[in-house]
Amino acid sequence: MNTERPPLLMLPGLLCDHAAWATAAAALPQYDCRVPAWGRLDTLDAMADHVLASTTEPRFALAGHSMGGRVALEVVRRAPHRVTHLALLDTGYQALPDGEAAEKERAGRAALLARAREAGMRAMGQVWATGMVHPDQVGTPLFATILDMIERSDPDQFAAQIHALLGRPDATSLLSDVRCPTLVLCARQDTWSPLARHEIMAGLIPQSVLHVVEHSGHMSPMERPQDVADAMRTWLARPMLCATSTGGRRA
User: What does the alpha-carbon distance between residue 35 and residue 47 come to, in Å, rounded to a whole number?
Assistant: First the structure.
């Protein structure tokens, strides 16, 4: 590991922990890779503040997967001067929609939480994770690893993170202000955060490169860790520019 490089913060998604990034991080040994834990933090704001408060270095590279990508954008909103590189993986940027779409999302998440409380986290994960991976991964050792990861959380943590996602802010106006080298990565078969959304994101971020990971679902850092690490290595090799020029508060 080259200690002269800024650390690489890898932000996990909903019910994910260090295991979500472990294999991709191992393929990037020259970087100081760190994965924060969300615990029972129940807003994206609180998660972003946690990332900033727990990182003593003045600057860092920032990668976020799924919910972690939304947290990454909130970190950029607060402290653009600290972010040297930004990667957004299988994620989104818009707030909860209005009307029927919002009610459908609330109901779906509430049903999963109810199953977690009644049958346990692993039983809930068996249903939920089936739609998060490529169909070829269901029932494999990797799928069991994902269930193990989900089982390390509890229903209260799940409830807190659902609350955070339902209250997510809209980051559309932030995207055009990002000035650091940015990787927008999406798996071809991601049905949770589809490629079309990432194409829009990449079009709105001036310094962005879009990378598509083939034969993977939403959990691309676990399903295709070498492909993800290769894309991140290329991204991290891009020269540092000034970070973003947003007017967000500094930390």
Answer: 12
Q: Global pTM? A: 0.94
CATH architecture group of domain 8-96+169-236: 3-Layer(aba) Sandwich (3.40)
The mean per-residue pLDDT over the stretch 34-54 comes to 98
Residue type, 242: C
Domain ranges of the chain: 8-96+169-236, 99-165
H/E element, 78 = helix 67-78
Per-residue confidence band for 246, with pLDDT thresholds at 50, 70 and 90: very low
Torsion of CA 52, 154, 168, 99, to 10 degrees: 180
CB 190 within 8 A of CB 220: yes
26-35, 214-223, 232-241: which has the minimum mean pLDDT? 232-241
Structure tokens at 94: 């818009």
pLDDT at 81 exceeding the cut of 80:
yes
Q: 58, 1, 62: which is closest to 30 by C-alpha?
A: 1
Q: Which two tokens stand for residue 43?
A: 């807003």
